[in-house]
Amino acid sequence: MILYETLDKISNETLHQTFVEAFSDYQVKIDLPYWKFQQMIQRRGYNPEISAGAFKNQKLVGFALTGLRSWNGKTTAYDIATGIIPECRRQGITSNILAHIKNLLKEKQVEQYLLEVIKTNQPALELYQKQGFQIQREFSCFQLNKNKFIQGGTWEAEKVNRIDFQQVEDFWDCQPSWQNSAASVEALLEAFTCFVVRLDDAIAGYGIIDKKTGDIPQIAVSKSCRGKGIASSIMAELVKTAESERIAVINIETPQNPIENFLTQLGFESHVGQYEMLMKL
After folding, report:
1. Contact criterion met (CB below 8 Å) for 251 and 274
2. Where is each N-acetyltransferase domain found (predicted)?
3. What is the per-residue DSSP string for 46-71?
């Protein structure tokens, strides 16, 4: 018998153990030691009271970890990760977990439910569509081995403690995804290193990296300052700062986003595509 309960009494260590087992055969290899797992759930706003697990003989065999924030002016839940251990799949557990969470969200008057899914994961895509999620945007994810980085730009990038996102929102060509948002960066600010290039004492461009993981959530240049090598200079500093050999820029909205060509020119390769999906509650 499978029981469905919230995760407010389940330790992060137990969640991590089940996460590793559930994603052991995932189509994209996931390297997530415990410290990275803790960072992930903190950054994405994990809220155990609106997260749910499936329990078989008191063992956690499936889960949906949920974040909660304001998104586009609406109270929004976000699916941080959903997984079922291999031996318990194809039993309708994911659908039951999501149904349980939807009831929790409605009780708390959450207005919408957001997630991302790999475009080629057809079973998951169809499941989410049946649950009522609709595709909002398409994302592409890029990665780079440091030794393949193509150096460019001659501007001096200055290290700063943080970015005032209200000052740089006009730099964006599209809204960052949930995990790349200003709120996600601020939630784990101690993990990130920030650089800016100034022009006449004003910020002309900026970039942010988690130097341990090599993840770059944001890099942008003022529309009036583009074509001058500023972004390349910032990227060079970000890559140099990274302790990881792998640099990642995920969830770039496509198609026809200028940053795609920029990343390709620097040696990045697109390795997976995702859909952003939303369900109104």
Report:
1. yes
2. 2-161, 155-281
3. B-GGG-EEEEETTEEEEEEEEEEEEE
Structural domain tally of the chain? 2
Through-space distance between the first and last CA atoms of the chain, rounded to whole angstroms:
29
Cα–Cα distance for residue pair 243/147, rounded to 1 Å: 13
Place of tokens 């994302």: 139
What residue type is 263 in one-letter code? L
Instruction: Give whole-number Cα distances, 158 to 151, 193, 231, in Å.
Output: 18, 11, 13
CB atoms within 10 A of CB 183: 17
| Confidence bin at 61 (pLDDT 50/70/90) | very high
Average pLDDT of span 46-73: 97
Note whether residue 24 is domain-resident. yes
Q: Same structural domain for residues 155 and 268?
A: yes
pTM reported for the whole predicted model: 0.94
Mean pLDDT within 165-187 = 96
- Mean per-residue pLDDT for 168-195? 97
Question: How many angstroms separate the Cα of 85 from the Cα of each of 16, 149, 175, 208, 260?
Answer: 12, 37, 34, 34, 35
- What tens digit of pLDDT does each residue of 202-251 get? 999 999 999 999 999 999 999 999 999 999 999 999 999 999 999 999 99
For residues 46 and 105, membership in a common domain is answered with yes
In tens, the pLDDT along 134-158 reads 999 999 999 999 999 998 889 999 9
Name the 3-class secondary structure at 121: coil
Q: 207: domain range?
A: 142-275
